[in-house]
């Protein structure tokens, strides 16, 4: 059985790659994709910790998996609203380049 | 251990594809690949229900939405770039973060895992096991998520709808 620390390390690596994407990408959609990657890294860590907490009983151990379920639902809502905003911005500005979208007004 | 290494390599390769591929569609498909791999990692972590949900919600619904928007907007990253120094800086920051975190994590002690206990307590991470917690401690959060999803649907619909109406009014004014 593979130790929890390896899964957490994998999660940290995925999270760092997501950070690189957020910092280096210039299209808003690509930044969004990288944020999804970071969310998934956090989910992986939580599922790994859920397994590690098995000795504390079912209610404590399954907390992690229930939280991942809620995060999945929130990610779905976030993507729907975020992409709606992106489409609305694109209608006005004809671009999703973040360097060109530095003003708050449309 | 071998299966974990294969999954980890696939997952990291898919993630690097997301941040480095030029074409947005390729990057999105790379993310689909890494999300599918993550679902298999969930199975290896005894979370079968979450693995199914991951495929259905993430790889299915969310990524289809992303691909639709990418194809609708036809995003292409422009050639000229004022912030060219950002890219190598971002990669250096990411590499340093990863090295630091992994070194720290592998050094810190973690409790030993008891395979029998995990089999009886987690019980494969079935929908029943997740629901037992979700409808006890998390019931308020569960209902709030319902409200959030409803708000999200209404918000996304009205956001796109209103802009379309304004665009139509502006078009009519320009024609008049």
Helix content of chain A: over 70%
- CATH fold-type name of chain A: Helix Hairpins
Structural class of chain B: mainly alpha
Question: End-to-end span of chain A in angstroms?
Answer: 53 Å
- The CATH class designation of chain A is Mainly Alpha
Which residues of chain A sit in consecutive blocks of at least 5 with pLDDT less than 50?
A: none
What does the overall shape of chain B look like? extended
Regarding quaternary structure, how should these chains be classified?
heterodimer
pLDDT averaged residue by residue of chain B: 85
* Structure classification of chain A: mainly alpha
Strand coverage percent of chain B: under 5%
Largest sheet of chain B: none
Number of strands of chain A: 0
Structure description:
The complex is a heterodimer of chains A (106) and B (176). Chain A is mainly α and 106 residues long. Chain A has one domain: Helix Hairpins (Orthogonal Bundle), CATH 1.10.287.3510. Chain A contains three helices and no strands. The longest helix of chain A has 36 residues, at 58-93. The radius of gyration of chain A is 18 Å and the shape is elongated. The model of chain A has no long low-confidence stretch (mean pLDDT 86). The longest helix of chain B has 37 residues, at 139-175. In chain B, helix 1 (2-20) runs antiparallel to helix 2 (24-44) and helix 2 (24-44) packs antiparallel against helix 3 (48-73). Chain B folds into two domains: 1-75 and 100-124, Four Helix Bundle (Hemerythrin (Met), subunit A) (Up-down Bundle), CATH 1.20.120.1200; 138-176. Chain B has seven helices and no strands. Chain B has 176 residues and is mainly alpha-helical. Classes of the chains: A mainly alpha (106), B mainly alpha (176). At the A-B interface, helix 1, helix 2 and helix 3 of A face helix 1, helix 2, helix 3, helix 4 and helix 5 of B.
């Amino acid at each position: 059985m593979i130790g929890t620390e390896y899964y957490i390390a994998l999660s940290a690596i995925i999270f760092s790659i997501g950070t690189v994407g957020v910092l280096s990408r210039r299209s808003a959609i690509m930044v969004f994709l990288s944020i999804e990657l970071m969310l998934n890294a956090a989910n992986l860590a939580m599922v790994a910790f859920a397994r590690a907490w098995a000795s504390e009983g079912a209610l404590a151990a399954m907390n992690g998996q229930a939280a991942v379920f809620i995060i999945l639902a929130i990610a779905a809502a976030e993507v729907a609203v975020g992409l709606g905003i992106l489409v609305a911005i694109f209608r006005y500005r004809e671009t999703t380049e973040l360097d060109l979208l530095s003003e708050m007004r449309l | 251990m071998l299966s974990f290494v294969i999954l980890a390599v696939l997952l990291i390769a898919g993630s690097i594809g997301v941040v480095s591929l030029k074409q947005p569609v390729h990057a999105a498909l790379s993310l689909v690949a890494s999300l599918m791999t993550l679902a298999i990692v969930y199975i290896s972590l005894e979370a079968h229900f979450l693995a199914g949900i991951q495929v259905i919600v993430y790889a299915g619904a969310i990524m289809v939405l992303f691909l639709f928007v990418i194809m609708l907007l036809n995003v292409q990253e422009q050639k000229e770039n004022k912030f060219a120094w950002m890219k190598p800086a971002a990669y250096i920051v990411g590499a340093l973060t990863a090295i630091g975190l992994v070194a720290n994590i592998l050094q810190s002690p973690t409790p030993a895992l008891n395979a029998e206990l995990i089999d009886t307590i987690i019980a494969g991470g079935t929908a029943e096991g997740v629901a037992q917690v979700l409808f006890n401690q998390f019931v308020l959060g569960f209902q709030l998520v319902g409200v959030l999803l409803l708000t999200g649907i209404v918000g996304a619909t009205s956001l796109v709808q209103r802009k379309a109406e304004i665009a139509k009014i502006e078009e009519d004014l320009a024609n008049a």
